[in-house]
Amino acid sequence: MNRNGTVTRGLDAGLIDELRAIVGADGVVSHSSELKVYECDGWTIEKSAPDLLVMPRSTEQTSAILSALWRRDVAFVPRGAGTGLSGGALPVEAPVMICTSRMNRILEIDLANRRVEVESGVVNLHVTNAVRGAGFFYAPDPSSQQACTIGGNIAENSGGPHTLKYGVTANHVLGVTLVLASGQIVELGGACEEPCGYDLVGAVVGAEGTVGIVTRATLRIMREPQAHRTLLATFAGAEAATRAVSAVIAAGIVPGAIEMMDRLIIRAVEEAFHVGLPADAGAVLIIELDGLAAALDEQAAAVTAIARSAGASEVRLARDEAERGALWKARKRAFGAVGRLAPNYATQDGVVPRTRLPEILRVISAVSTKYNLAIGNVFHAGDGNIHPIILYDERDPAQLRGAIDAGREILAACVTMGGSLTGEHGIGVEKQGEMPLLFSPDDLRAMTELRHVFDPRERSNPNKIIPRPGVCVEVAAPHRQVPV
Amino acid sequence: MRPASPVTDSAEIAKRIASLIGGDHVRAPRGAEARAAAVIAQPADPAETAALVRMCEADAISLAPLGAARTLSEIRRAPAALGVSLARMARVIAYEPDDMTIVAQAGISVAQVNSAMAQSGQRMPVDPHEPELTSVGAMIAAHHAGPLRLSEGTARDLLIGIQFIGHGGAMIRSGGRVVKNVAGYDFMKLMNGSFGTLGIITEAAFKVRPIPEFYALAIASFDRAAGAFDVARSFANAAPLAHLEVTSPRMSVALGLAPTYWVLAGISGTRAEIDYLRGAIARASLAEVEFLAGDDARRMYCALRDCDFADWAIGAQLVVPPAALAGVLEACDAEFRAHAGSGIAQIITREPPAPDAARAIVARWRELARAARGHLRVLRAAPEIRDAIEFFDTPNHGALELMRAMKSAFDPVKIFNPGCFAGGI
Q1: pLDDT exceeds 50 at position A5
Q2: Looking at the predicted structure, is the pLDDT value of residue A177 above 60?
Q3: Inter-chain contact B270–A193, Cβ cutoff 8 Å?
Q4: Hey, of A109, A153, A187, A198, which one would you mutate to test binding to chain B, going by the most B CBs within 10 A of its CB?
Q5: Measured between CA atoms, how close is A203 to chain B, in angstroms?
Q6: With a cut of 0.85, is the ipTM above it?
Q7: Could you tell me where the DSSP H helices lie in A170-233?
Q8: In DSSP terms, which residues pair with B265 in a beta bridge?
């Protein structure tokens, strides 16, 4: 029996008592109504609540928790803020969820070395907020940056609009404290540019929580660019907009970010937030140039000319920081705005070589027609990283099935064009089945071996990333309620 | 199955390899290669490379991937039984200027990769020592990088895909050909700096960058190292630099400069950016700054990038947090070329010390590095003192355990460049 008087499935009371002794009574959640909040992350198509939630406050508590689980061979799923979009924090045969959100201290700000040491539950944006006054920023900026945690970013190797110029999470993490599934604490990397021995930090970042729980990280911060020029270019259609993207890159200009929104997204954003986007446009590009002020006007003029010759009807320069802020607010809140258009939506994440963007947009449009589901596009055009947003109503089983199939069809097309299944959201449970499109059995075996170096018993976030050959996922995961 | 005794006879190994890939592609080592490997095989493609790996595993033949053999000839205590040269695997496989990506076989030199892109105004900006001699595979495996690491990063930042031949001759791919990709575990970073101990890199994909329109170099001379590092710091705070080096007197002489401490700060960009950066640097400096442009700047940059440590008795790479670099270098009391913005310096001692003294020098440098939360790797040592020196620093206990497990997982027969990495891996 747990403290709420309900029986927690499959977990012995001794374990729950031990965990309570480690983190305190308020650090363990076992009542099913409270656990329901944790039944999914941003991948809402599948749901499965954990049997128990534990919230450690330190590396040592995390280690003690994992030791207790290891002794009983109980699997666990790590969770940051639950903003992930591929089901990375969905429990699949992992009864215990470990949430890092209470480990939320910024431990050291070292401006001389351009480093920040944080606990893994620190919110992404809080890192930049802590150093902005001194003229620095933390570059990876996922749309969920007001909520997502550094630990989650490390697990998923998160990106964001500004990764076009500044790189993804892996490029900004120098060291981590990792608690292995066995409970052992290891320090990997550190405050230096180069590792001593194998680059294990590089193996941990992007491993989707399958190698243990990161409790602390040393991050690289960068000096804020001297100036920005943010342009809004309006096009009749998405294809013309993507042609402009290729032309900008081909001209040798590397903007800080190039983001695209199509008609459906523009309308949704305008209706929700009234930020002044051209409501009748077929597509817009937000192109942000940053660097030395001395060069930006020339660059902005060049980009404007390129956009116009690709068919832009209007290219508007944000006049001040307020206008720039409004454009970015529109972009980063696009996903939220879409929530107004349909009861449910699934955000896909695929990558194509950026010159193939017009082609993949045609595929998306055809898929939308085929399944009779509206699909909006808001994405990191400069990276070729698409985010089709498929609208559906989960109460209609046909629509739900269609949403899943439509996503898979788009991903298969990305791979055929020489791209990837995911640019920044991860494989999670969502794309396990598609991994063989991209990787051979030998590749997948090697990946499994890499994982086993850290976690030979697959206790940390089991049943993610690598497909289990011959085993239907639903059968392998009886707790999962796949509503199809 | 592993035989009772490994095959070590070079003539026998050469004969077996000839039967696999043809007698024309097996040869004796030349010059410094002899310190890296006893026999050299030059497979034509990944399939032949895989066949070599399977043969080596079956007969317990140690195998070392070699580019120009400049790295391993300096750090192997005894030659590997077989060196695998990828000189015949040196093609650009796909270059897509509009996607800003390039895929190449690992045997191609960094300079050749860049000449394939020059017409399109692009480059793969990692700038190791002598890029004409550094193969892409060696650049990745030994994590070679140069001055531009400050602004452009290293292979770690630019690699987007990799193929390598591992245990059992398996051909393993990770990443892909697109600039953003998080599908599956990241072998690009694991292979980067693994010194051929996990497999043979056969192919690599990179994201590339535009070549800046202009490049210029600000140089200033100082009598004391502290003065040079102070000014270097003020330059870095004043402006985004392409690179930032400080050289000690003897290294400065090798660059054709006066025997003092020099700051060499590279700037790049459009004409307007260069003009701004020159002004910002001039304002930030308390000392007199000379600006080199055009061919003069380029020549000096190449000399700085290609600084040769081969003639020195001990050459080592010191890695510490950037703000600690000046203090640690002063305490090391050695000649150096420092990448001041990155916290990395190559430090050297000229006169060949006796083995005991050599051991003591390296131990002292290493202790200073560790005290600053860094580490030190020996890049080369004169043959007479080599046995006295630990080339790789030892990672902390927990990390080392994982590294040993990684080695066992990916090289269970222990044929890939054995005994030539951190912790005796």
Answers
A1: no
A2: yes
A3: no
A4: A198
A5: 6
A6: yes
A7: 200-204
A8: B218, B244
Strands A76-79 and A96-99: parallel
Number of H helices, E strands in chain A: 17, 20
Closest listed residue to residue B307, CA positions, set B364, B379, B382, B365? B379
Residues from chain A that touch B423, judged by Cβ atoms under 8 A, are 197
Q: What is the DSSP string of A67-123?
A: HHHHHTT--EEEESSS--SSSTTS-SS--EEEE-TT---EEEEEGGGTEEEEETTSB
Give the SS3 label for residue B217.
strand
Cβ–Cβ of A253/B210 closer than 8 Å?
A: yes
Ordered alpha helix ranges (H), B136-184? 136-141, 149-152, 155-158
- Tell whether B253 is within 8 A of chain A (Cβ): no
How many CB atoms are located within 10 Å of the residue B32 CB? 14
Q: What is the mean pLDDT of each run of 10 residues along chain B (425 residues)?
A: 67 95 96 94 98 97 91 90 97 95 98 97 97 97 97 97 98 96 97 97 97 97 97 95 97 96 97 96 89 98 91 93 98 96 93 88 97 96 89 97 98 96 93
Band of residue A482 on the pLDDT scale cut at 50, 70, 90: very low
**Token pair 């896909």: residue:** A348
Picking from B240, B237, B234, the residue whose alpha carbon sits closest to that of residue B277 is B240
Count the Cβ atoms, other than its own, within 10 Å of residue B307.
Answer: 20
Report pLDDT for A471: 38
> B37 is written with which tokens?
């490997």
Q: For residue range A341-383, list pLDDT tens digits in order.
A: 899 999 899 999 999 999 999 999 999 999 999 999 999 999 9
In this structure, the number of other CB atoms found within 10 A of the CB of residue B96 comes to: 16
Q: What is the pLDDT, as a whole number, of residue B352? A: 78
Rounded distance, CA B354 to CA B342, Å? 32
Q: Testing the interface with B: which of A192, A355, A424, A431 to mutate, by most B Cβ within 10 A? A: A192
- Asked if A168 and B182 come within 8 Å (Cβ–Cβ), the reply is yes
Higher-confidence residue: A275 or A313? A313
Bridge partners (DSSP) of residue B253 are none
Longest dimension (CA), chain A: 70
C-alpha distance from A272 to closest chain B C-alpha (Å): 30
pTM to 2 decimal places:
0.95
Question: What token pair was written down for A249?
Answer: 């890159």
The SS3 assignment for B49 reads helix
pLDDT of residue A470: 46
Distance from CA of A3 to the nearest CA of B (A): 37
Question: H/E element holding A4?
Answer: none
Task: For residue B253, count other CB atoms closer than 10 A to its CB.
Answer: 14
What is the reported pLDDT for A8?
A: 52
Q: Check CB contact of B342 with chain A, cutoff 8 Å.
A: yes
Q: Is B230 within 8 Å of chain A by CB?
A: no
Chain A within 8 Å of B236 (Cβ-Cβ)?
Answer: no
